[in-house]
Every structure is written in structure tokens, then in C-alpha cells.
Iron-containing redox enzyme family protein (Nonomuraea insulae), 332 residues
Amino acid sequence: MRLPPARGSITEALFDLLRGPAGTGPPDEVVATAAAGLDDDDAQLALFACYELHYQGFDEVDDRWEWDPALLGFRAVLERRFERSLAAAVPRPDSLDPAGLRAALTALTCPEEEPLLSLFLQREASLNNFREFVMHRSIYHLKEADPHTWAIPRLSGGPKAALVEIQSDEYGGGRRERMHSELFRATLRGLGLDDAYGAYLNRVPGVTLAISNAMSLFGLHRRWRAALLGHLAAIEMTSSLPNRRYAAGLRRLGAGPVTVRFYDEHVQADAVHEQIAANDMCGAFATAFPACTGDIVYGAACALELERRWAEHVMSCWQRGTGSLRAQPVPA
């Protein structure tokens, strides 16, 4: 993956820096003006790029930037402001009795209203709508499970075993062709799209990048490990029904079994993962660390709020008859 086009003063300065030799930090004025609103294109892309150095990286960026002290300081500024934006959008709950954790997670993940986006994709979406949808989703699904895997060395005992069980399924039980990221590549190809890692990074808006950035924030900081567990639990507890609808929508549009398999797999796998995540992982962790129960619920609430904002953006664009992606940059 190559660095995408800059989206403002922050990414312009950051990307110019990353294309050079490691060892010189971002200009002070860039650090001072950095913001990280939940839908800010420039700030979310800058934070995403900083995090990506811990994943696959960028072709033209020296790997030594990953642990460059000055760059980490710049990332910390973005993170602090991102955390404040999350806290403003999602109230931090108090700790609760571990015995009530499952009920709290269930209450969060059972919406009073049907999610409009999954219903639309099932019943009405065009092929172009579906292509847009998977382009957005490619930002996470082509690295599926990776952000949550950061928690494994930070756990022990039952919660660690439970997370490994979930992640083993995400990675195909050791078989490449069954890895969820590979199944999603097949979906992209079946819809006539580019299956390369990061192929659509330059097209997705900040509200999409914020979803991945929250996972990386929680995953890369041990202090957020409980929030990361709650984040994963929320994903697993809200996955089966939407994925069933996505699969039905693709079949309605004539997609074949290879294209649909990613969604079919999640209908089955996540029904099992929901129980493991809520009980064996989060429940056991809460019993061992009662003071962290509030963070577990907070992580789940952040996942759901960012997903809600993203879905609202996509649906509002489609209802207006416009695309939900950024315009294709004109080649230099």
C-alpha cells in the first residue's frame, strides 16, 4: 500500500515527513493544530496512517518510523483529541457488578429500531450501492481480527483462551483460504472491485476511518484492553443478523456463492462467537478485574456509536441520491 493523497495541512505535512528518512519529527505547528474529530477527514487519515505503521505499513515509508519518538509524540496528540471526541459522543459508564455485565452488553446491542442500512442492502440496494458498501468495509475487513489480536499478550487464563478461540476462527483455523480477510477478498473480486490491501483508502471518508482508528487505539494501549474486549464483544453480538441480510441482498442481485461466502460464514461463526465473547472473555475478565467493567461497556458503546454514525452517513448520502465515498482523486 502506498500513502494516499493528503486531505489537509496535517496529512500533507505528515506524509511529506514519512517519505523522508526517519529521525525528524513533525513541525511544531502541525502538532499544535492537530485535531481528531470523529468525522474529520484530515485528522482521521493522519491517525490511521500513524497506526498503519504497526500493521502492513506503506511501500515508500521507512519501517523505522514505526517507533520514532517524535512521530509517536505527534500520534499521542491526535490520540488525546480522538479520545476526547469519543468521550463527548459516548458517556463513560461507571463500573458495575461483574454479574450484571452480560445484561449491560445485551441492553446495548439490542437496538429499539431495526438498522436501516442492513435492511436497505437486503431489500433495495443496487449493485453500485453494494460496491460502495464493501469499499467502505474493506478498510477493516482486509485486516480482520488484527486490531483485536493485540489483546492476546495482555490477557491470561480463561479470557485469553476465549479470545484465541475467536481469533483462530477469524484466521481460518490456520488455513489461508478460510481466513475471513481472504473470504472478503473473494467478495471484492466477485463485485468487480480491487482486492488489494488498502486499495480504497483514498476513497473512504473520516467517519469510516474512525471505526478502524478506535480499534487500533484500544488495541495498541494496554490501559484500554478492557475496552478492546468490549469492542469485540459488541461486534460479535450484533453481527449475525446484518450479515444474513447482506447475504440475502447479494443473492437478490445475482451474486454467486463465492461472493456471498464471507457473509454466510459470519452468520454462523458470530452466533457462536457472541457467547464466547460475552461470557468466557468479557465475563471472566470482569470477574478477575471488577474495576474494569465500565471500560468493557465503554468499548462496546464506542463500537456501536461509530458504526451508527457511519451507517447514518451512508444512508443519508444514498437517500439524497449521492455517493457515500470521496471523489476519485485526479492523478497528478
